[in-house]
Write a structure and sequence with these properties.
The chain has about 325 residues and is α/β, with parallel strands linked by helices. It has one domain: Alpha-Beta Barrel (TIM Barrel). The protein contains 11 helices and 9 strands. Helix 1 packs across helix 4. This is Dipeptidase.
Length: about 325
């Protein structure tokens, strides 16, 4: 069964490795590096049909270095990820429908507006390079909005609202996964394509990175998609480790709130340092599918795996066959 995974941080790992090659030897090989949860071979083994690759620039970097760091990750996307023989760049949403049976679609996503600051020319350049999903913040504040870790807990700035409007014009997802609650509600008021690339239910795990029931229901009412994340800290609080069933309880809860056709998966592979037992990397996606098939119908499982995404992407609504 196909998988569409809407978040991984392989580009950051590739960048760190390349920058450190003088000290550590050869940089990571995207094809099969064991250090990469979502390397090319593991995507193939796991049945991943489309993988989102986040551009993440840490907020603590000096402002005058952030754009360079973002461009380095984009360059690695083009050279390393798209350098694999069956990886195809998804530059517009309809490209997914044109993937051949053995091809994997690669989507560029931006996690945090820190990369472009207040320079909308840089943002437009990212659109031209293929960015199709944009989260305004990581956990902290920037010129667009406050993240979930910012004590001020403010919403969108005028610049942030302008960015959402540009996303709308270009058919780009506006990702709410790291936004403050006030920022979340501002986005929901403005965005044509609201999206949570990797978030769980706060009712089951009281972590600020998760969404509460009111937010979840509002996302569904606005036609948004919420993709569950595999980080144990966002899944369960009672113990340090998490099992697949613990993750599935978040899907159960979202379905109970009306989300059967609005839930997908956003693993956060390569951005997480602990894993759900049995979901160590992208090659283990079939285990998740097997567990889902024990409690949901085949149609529902197909929805969670890939079809819900296809039905909620901007633009065309054609389904992926197979």
């Amino acid at each position: 069964m196909h998988i569409i995974d809407t978040h991984c941080d392989a580009l950051l790992k590739l960048q760190v490795s390349k920058r450190n090659e003088l000290f550590r030897g050869k940089p990571l090989d995207y094809k099969d590096a064991d250090e990469l949860d979502s390397n090319y071979e593991r995507l193939q083994q796991g049945g991943v049909k489309v993988q989102f690759f986040a551009i993440f620039v840490h907020p603590e970097l000096p402002d005058n270095e952030k754009w360079q760091h973002a461009l380095e990750q984009v360059d690695l996307f083009y050279s390393e990820v798209l350098g694999q023989p069956l990886m195809k760049h998804i530059r517009k949403w309809s490209d997914i429908d044109d993937l051949k049976p053995d091809e994997i679609g690669a989507v560029l996503a931006l996690e945090g507006a820190d990369a472009f600051g207040n320079d909308l020319a840089k943002l437009r350049h990212l659109y031209r390079l293929g960015v199709l999903s944009l989260g305004l913040t990581w956990n902290y504040a920037n010129l667009c909005a406050d993240g979930v870790g910012e004590p001020r807990a403010g919403g969108l700035t005028l610049l942030g609202k302008q960015v959402v409007e540009l996303n709308n014009e270009h058919g780009i997802f506006t990702d709410v996964s790291h936004l403050s609650p006030a920022g979340f509600w501002d986005v929901l008021e403005l965005a044509d394509y609201p999206f949570a690339s990797h978030s769980n239910a706060r009712k089951l795990c009281d972590h600020p990175r998760n969404l509460d029931d009111r937010q979840i229901e509002a996302m569904f009412a606005h036609g948004g998609l919420i993709d569950v994340v595999f980080f144990p800290d966002f899944i369960i609080q009672e113990r340090k480790s998490a099992e697949i069933d613990d993750l599935l309880r978040h899907i159960d809860h979202m379905c109970a709130l009306g989300g059967e056709r609005h839930v997908g998966v956003g693993s956060d592979f390569d951005g997480i340092f602990t894993h759900v037992e049995g979901l160590d990397n992208a090659s283990f996606f079939p285990r998740l599918i097997d567990a889902l098939q024990k409690r949901y119908t085949e149609t529902q499982v197909e929805g969670f795996a890939y079809r819900n995404f296809l039905e909620h992407r901007p633009g065309v609504l054609k389904n992926l066959s197979g």
